[in-house]
Description:
Largest interface: A-B, 91 and 96 residues
Helix content of chain A: over 70%
Order of helices and strands of chain B: HHEEHHHHHHHHHHHHH
Shape of chain B: globular
CATH architecture of the largest domain in chain B: Orthogonal Bundle
Strand content of chain A: under 5%
Number of strands of chain A: 0
Oligomer: heterodimer
Distance between the termini of chain B: 30 Å
Largest sheet of chain A: none
Amino acid sequence: MSVKKHGIGHFLIILLLSMGAIILVYPLYNQLIISLTGTDYISRASGTTIIPYGFTLSTYKTVLAIPKVARGVFNSIFITAVGLVINIVFTSMGAYVLTKRDLVGRNFFITLIVITMIFEGGLIPDYFLMRKLHLLNSYWSVILYKAINPYYLIILMRFFDQVPSSLIEAARIDGLNETKILFKIVIPVSVAGIATVSLFYGVFHWNEYFRAMIYLTDELKFPLQVVLRELLISAEKASFIGSMNYLKVTAAAQLDIKAIKAALIIISIVPILAFYPFVLKYFVKGRLEGSVKE
Amino acid sequence: MKGNIQKRIVKDKQMYLLLFPVILFFIIWHYIPMWGARIAFQDVMYIGANKWAGLRHFKMLFSSPVFLKVFMNTIIISSMKMFLIFPLPIILAFMLNEVTSHGFRKSVQSVIYLPHFLSWVVIAGLFISLLASPDGAVNKVRIFFHIKPIAYMTSTSHIRWVFVFSEIWRSIGWDSILYIAAINSIAPALYEAATIDGATPFQQAMNITFPAIVPTIVTVFILNLGFFMNAGFDQVFNMMNDAVINHVDIIDTYVYRVGLKQGNYSLGTAAGLFKGIIGLFLILSTDKLSRKISGEGVW
């Protein structure tokens, strides 16, 4: 591989890849710039603005002060955090037990889980179930319906499979019960696996909007993605920032809709951008683990 | 033997205790809704038990011009994405493989994987802004070259292409990971030998790299085929608008709009079930195909 010549082909490939990468980030960059553009210049900002004229952070300050947005940030963090704990506890319980090859009924349980990956009751039966359980308009509806993702369960099984069985046997001989073995030994030595699966679940919860939109009715329970969607779709400032704010002519009423949208987009991806460089390798690992067959 | 099994079950009782909530989860959140899907064969009553309706809702569905349109849209949008996008991550992996600078390759990779982690709500927001007329970046460029701007998001002849391009934007990097991994596992000795024999980089790509990743290509293609009926709910749902609805409404958005929102629960569930059964058939047959070709199933 190291004996390649740097010909014109190599140069063209570098050029194409660089251009591709720039095109890929540009839409995000453009929104960042618009969100940082000063109030006096915002009316002239467009898709080709690449420098934030009249640089200001005040758009963010004002947008974060809109009750819906502030609550949205809180709700998203809450749903992601609580959801994640539940995901990891239950997914690792399932993965641990199903990794034990001589468990009576193992194949039956695995089949039971795999079936749910290829066939589902559908949106409307899901909704009816939620209503019957009186979980509509509760955070739990959004947290519980995907407490275990069968794909991630299988990924975690592959990681748990690599835990040396001698380690587990030794713990059994020491008299530890299975719950303790799982939480004190298997999970701590499978850091990479837990990290991978946590990240997938974390992104899932953070980006979740549809189920939240249909299960939750109280606006103050909406996660950030639902708030963002509402703004993008309705595209009407008055209804978004609330008529009360509008009549009082607060700071939010003076903001350009373009700037509000841009700031909200950036706010909703900041957590992903913040973690992304450090955790990318786990994502890639998970992608590869998830594709390898049993 | 029987006593043996009993003994093993008793020995593993803590294991079953741990598994119990997991299985309970799947029964509650997956199997009860499957059973609930029987309302496709019933009339939902607000008072008293539901009445049996047989296949009436399915008949209604198949004789509805709207559903026919929706079904066709699903197939068209899914085909466009599947066949037009499929080769791109492979080409990308080849290009990355030719890059000699390790640092440059890593930087490009970390940039192009990023869009995969953004929600379709955010991506829709980005594309609506990118394609806005006349202020979006694309139309700004068109105006610069004195070409008439286009309102892409509300243009019936462009919206499906917006789906294709935004899907490429989101997944080209992420989908190349498998091919990159397959290429990385090729023995370097093969390339060294080829170089000594005077093979050009292009010849090496065609005769060494490509044959080595054919199995991966086949597996990924078959897997995609199994999920053909998923034309991309989140994407369509967040990018659709009244101007283009007839061209983009797919089965999943129909289930939400007609079934849940307008309260035609049985009709909506029937549509979802119809899609689910086609999907099941596709997955089972692609699994069989995969076993025949590569000796391994999809699962």
